[in-house]
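Reviewers asked in the last cycle whether our approach scales beyond single polypeptides. To address this, we selected a multi-component target totalling 412 residues and predicted its structure end to end. The input consisted of the following lines:
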Amino acid sequence: MITASLLHNALIVGAILFSLGLVGILTRRNLIVMFLCAELMLQGVSVTLVAWSRYHGDWGGQILVIFVLTVAACEAAVALVFILQAFSRTGRLDAVAWQALREDNLPRTVDRELPAGDTAPPSWPRLSPAGIRPDSDDNQALQRDHV
Amino acid sequence: MDQVSVAPAGMLLAGSVTALAAALWLLLPKALDTPGTRRLGALLGAIAILGFAATGRTLGCLGADAVFLVVAGVAVVSGLATIVTRSPVYAAIWFALTLAGVSGVLLVLGAQFLGVATIVVYAGAILVMFLFVLMLAQPSGMASYDRVSSEPLLAAVSGAVLLGLLTLSVGRLSASAPPACCAMPSRAQAAAEAVRPQTATPSQAAPQNQMTDADEVARLGAELFGRHLFAVEVAGLLLLVALVGAIAVVSRAEAADGDQGRSRR
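The resulting structure, written as structure tokens, was:
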């Protein structure tokens, strides 16, 4: 049993996590990051369910969260396989690359044009030009550490 | 007196929502980002989170539980960092920190098994799977789709408005059950206990919000494998189906483009 004030604070925390995950899944374009945001929404719902469950002294909420965990594991396994397949087809993790996915008789919708530089090497931060252009070494560029 | 107390809370909520929307818009990856906008966004995000924390204080009594404050702050801040980080690997690491915070929140709420299971199952298994896939599928360097997100303004505004509405409804909830301050249970809880004396018989004598109740996990297990046994069986079947399905998709796809080879970039 928890107090009403702890319940309300936990509900607000759950709402914040859910909203953040929603914003992320609406706006991010990397498929894996979108999936992480879905998991963030699930975390918010879990906090809410557990808070209500403890408040009412009922086990139902916690049982439901256990099944949410199980289904999230299954979902992650299957979805990551699909994401890997999508990546091996297009070479990108971009959700925009699949925006034309449709049935045969439906018109093609294009939300956002594919940026021109998508097949080009990674876009580094744009620096203001200063001095002479350094001669770039491809081997050295490959060794550069990045995440 | 009621209006006097309601009006500042409403203004605080509106200010927090506005600050959160602006912070999210500034922080989300855009084409015209500079370190200055991101710093401003981080500042506004901190203000917004403090605003929501203050909203919680007006609703209940937030200062009662310092541990809750710390773990909830960790969860919320790292959740925000998860969705605004450019690099997917860093996003996964921030999400691990979010899981740690959520697990702390669950422990404070008294759900010991779920707190530990969140760490073990999510951070131990699911997140590691994410990281494996990221290592397999990550093109070198920052891709353009990580640096430019789609419609950050609309998403930030809608998310902030949704959060404001949710917080408002929690406020309604606490207004209908007036927040008796921190230590004592509210009237709604007393009513719930009066309505349902048979469900929580052994724990009635126990102290409130205990984190050391030894029977907690045992009773959860009895409930799970007693009343919900069929659901457990179905969940096991679901896990098996997911396993077989994932392998089937991979093997069929590999057989399909085995001759034409991978077309990576």
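The radius of gyration of chain B is 23 Å. We regard this as preliminary and will revisit it once experimental data from Aim 1 are available.
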